[in-house]
Amino acid sequence: MKVDLVLKNARIVDHAGEFYGGIAIAQGRIVAIGNDSILPPATRTIDLAGKVLMPGLIDPHCHLGVNYDFDDDMRTETAAAASGGVTTILLYIRNMEGSYIPFYGDRRKRGEENAVVDFGFHFGIQREEHVAEIAEIARTTGVQSFKCHMGYEPGNSIGIISSTDAWVYGAMREAAKLPHGVVSVHCENTELVQLLKGEMMATGRQDLAAYTESRPVFVEEEAIARMIGLAELTGCPLYIVHTTAAKGPLMAAAARARGVDVTIETCPHYLTRTAYDPDLDSRAKISPPLRDTEQLEGLWRGVMNGTVGTIGTDHVPFKKNGGDLWKEKPGVVTFPWELALMLHFGVHQRGMSLSRLVELNSYNAARQFGLYPRKGAIAVGSDADFVVVDLDEERVVTHEGKGTCLYEGWNLRGWPVMTISRGRIVYEEGGVVEKETGHGLCVTVPAHELLGR
Ligand SMILES: [Zn+2]
Fold it and tell me: How far is the CA of 436 from the centre of ligand 1 (A)?
């Protein structure tokens, strides 16, 4: 019997190590792994000529359908993700109107009609009723991950409602009861941000660093400490999104040492950009803000020593106004360059092992959000989600899609050259992304649905 696809002559890397050989794929899953000589005959065989083959990236953090139409974002941005070696994206998504149950049905359907790669949801707590609904959401939709926002004052440019400590505590108490329950928190002390922003606005400054200095790193550190305290009280796993504070990974490590389940995520831009870079202006506004070299280097220490758990892009396509700093929408796009940035600055420049990169980019997120070992693993039975990497290819970043790119013109070494989603090639270098619109499946589904897959 022939399998669908064999990838051979590859340097196969996962979180635990690496070997040379190949992988056989049938019906979207891995059916054999080993020396090329023992792999079954296949309808199609691809010789990877010794290139690196890793689990496809799981980007645990993005926002689609915020500024542009949801369906349109699910097409264009998942294609961008495929071009960056990303095979699963998890959306932090908010429903301002009411219950998440009908909302899930609608967004899942539209996602599955449009997405090129797999996707799932974390739901934002935007009203007290959402906290009360957590058990029912988990049961009927399979979503077990909830986000509490902070640092957004009333009337903010993107309409986010910041959580009170009571919402966070309530959400943690509910999520702690779920098998894969987790609460993500955007850590910035909302009240301090409001005070300091008012003071900074009064100075009339419009440079990017004014935004950064209006929400200094201590507002984030204070919130991280408070959230760790609540996680310890409730026993709920805590996932700290888009960490900019160098102290964040240290605080999390200290908490883990006493048994608190807390994970730090940071983003490529906090590892590669500062608010003082002379080429950046208000369009590089991100929430939380870009910081300085000291924080950047501290985050790299966490990335290298394992106290940073995951890399998320916080990818969000916005039409920027390019004018008033305080009215500018915060956020940038990163899917296509996330892996290249980590290869260039992590693997090549800082000597990061490829297994550590897999841990940061796939394995830890899969485990955190209940997707392992279906995702994030190279194992028989796992989804055949891969990225093939040419470690030595140099390419200059160009951006033509939606949103703001912070890396235009950068020459990076190490790029994804092929992306495979459940056995289908969704991106191949040199060509445009194959039109695989609608190939993507929702990964946050009720348990009974998974049995049928
Ligand atoms: Zn975000």
Answer: 26
